[in-house]
From TrEMBL:
InterPro entries for this protein: Cu_amine_oxidase-like_N (IPR012854), Mao_N_sf (IPR036582)
Matching Pfam families: Cu_amine_oxidN1
The name this protein goes by in its record: Copper amine oxidase-like N-terminal domain-containing protein
Domain Copper amine oxidase-like N-terminal: 58-106
Keywords for this protein: Signal
């Protein structure tokens, strides 16, 4: 329901926040509108305060007897990813068509490696991977720009478990999932709409290890 509401509202009554940048040119039209402090917002029956990406309150706008809400503030409340394509001046809501690498430049794990002896799995060199013979904590940084995480992972010699949580609230995003030993690469799908950082707990049984190819894991 949430995704449908946002999708239908975008064409009629949503405005993108200032973070999208200013689109100058012939497509801009000056209007007279009003900040409407009397309008209250509820999500699933619960009152919410709309805020921008810096945590500042934002006020609904009334124009031509219609109410306009900032896309980014609404998407954060509904846990729907939002992004801005500056080249095409397009607001991107929800899952993206093309996957984006999880390699965003931040350190994901202290066990990230580029050593070909460690980045090769079943004869294929993935160039960049996380691998370790033991438990690990891994961080991912979608920064609220994506709706899904698709993580590839293999359990070597022993079964293992993996769990995903919102790093800010510690709310579970995906409960513990068991990966069977020597079952090849498994792809795990995690809903991450509205999530800035993901804390991932990897538990490996004694004598086992895990392998995550960074180059084939992605956000959408």
């Amino acid at each position: 329901m949430r995704k449908k509401w946002v999708a239908s509202a975008i064409g009629a009554s949503l405005l993108l926040g200032a973070s999208a940048g200013v689109y100058a040119g012939a497509n801009l039209q000056e209007i007279t509108a009003y900040l409407n402090h009397s309008i209250k917002i509820k999500v699933d029956g619960k009152p919410v305060e709309l805020k921008d990406e810096d945590g500042n309150p934002v006020i609904p706008i009334t124009y031509d007897n219609k109410t306009y809400l900032p896309v980014r503030a609404v998407s954060d409340s509904l846990k729907v990813a939002v992004d801005w394509d500056n080249e095409t001046s397009t607001v991107l809501l929800g899952e993206k068509v093309d996957g984006v690498s999880i390699d965003t430049g931040e350190e994901l794990s202290i066990h990230t490696t580029q050593d070909p002896a460690q980045t090769t799995f079943k004869g294929k060199d993935y160039k960049l991977a996380i691998t370790y013979a033991g438990n690990d904590s891994i961080m991912f940084y979608p920064k609220k720009n994506y709706q899904k995480l698709y993580l590839q992972i293999a359990a070597i010699d022993q079964d293992m478990e993996i769990e995903f949580k919102d790093s800010d609230t510690f709310q579970t995003l995906k409960a513990k999932t068991t990966i069977k030993a020597n079952s090849g690469l498994n792809t795990i799908e995690v809903d991450i709409g509205g999530i800035s950082e993901i804390w991932t707990d990897v538990s490996v049984k004694n004598g086992g290890s895990f392998f995550i190819p960074i180059t084939t894991s992605y956000y959408k």
